[in-house]
Amino acid sequence: MENKNIKLSIILPVYNVAPYLRLCLDSILRDIDIDTEVIVVDDGSTDVSSQICDEYAGKYEQVRVRHQANAGLSAARNAGLSAARGHYISFIDSDDFIDSRVLNYMVSALETSKADFAISSFVSIPYNCIQRTYQSFDKKEFSLISSEDFLQGIQKYAMQVWNKVYRRKFIEGLYFKEGILYEDVAYIHEIAMRMCKAIYIDTPMYYYRIARPGSTVSTFKMTRLPAYDDVQAFVSDVHERFSKKAYLSISRMAANFFQQQYTECKLLLNDKLILADILERYKNVVRVLPIKVTPLYAFLFRISPNVFCWLKKIKSK
User: Fold this and answer.
1) Residues 32 and 167 both lie in one domain
2) Last residue of a domain, one of 209, 232, 249
């Protein structure tokens, strides 16, 4: 049964993140001042993450823990969605941390604006960061953005779900594809297609840890491959339904994505068939992008992907 007193449901999937988990949970609970539930989904952790989850559930009445066999990030998020009772939903990854003062304001702004979801700026942090350092926060006017604005500014607004707060009714029935990586692509695609308006707050709520060792993006797994079709489907839909500026913006995002995938496959796996497939997908999206606005590093990749990857390998040593 829905508890009408719960304003916000925070969904927090957990899998083997013991060194970061307390920092994450403390950042959520420290300054939150709205009726909130934190749904922690322990996705079969084999380190002490499970014990930390239970410890916080014992200390804080807002924290609810669900333990399940390992099924992946999407399945954990979906389990959280099924259990959520709040009017608003936020997804947080348990190796990152947030500024809950800004999160409070995002929910307040959603209620004022009647927008479908709220977006904040975000900050990338080193994977070994062990201390919260927040930027100054003064409440200020938010910006209203349309779906066209969102697509044109996708790099600024992010293709991830974690720097956003969603009106629960807006995402009703929308779940993550399970068993794949880059599950955010299809989710953001659907959000962009169904949204009327969103709000943007130019203050970071979210602090994103860059590719920690052992994270889902630090190895090349076959579960990456289904997202390649999702990226192309996103580009195709935008081409059919939105302006040329939006199409070019999403095409640029897709080109950067496939460039990154090619580079990582080359350095981590070097599978010729997968490399050829990625390169073909890259060519299909990059052909619409003007060369004159192509960054130098991307221009080098367009000329010779193998030379580009070789230089990346040399630089990383």
Assistant:
1) yes
2) 209
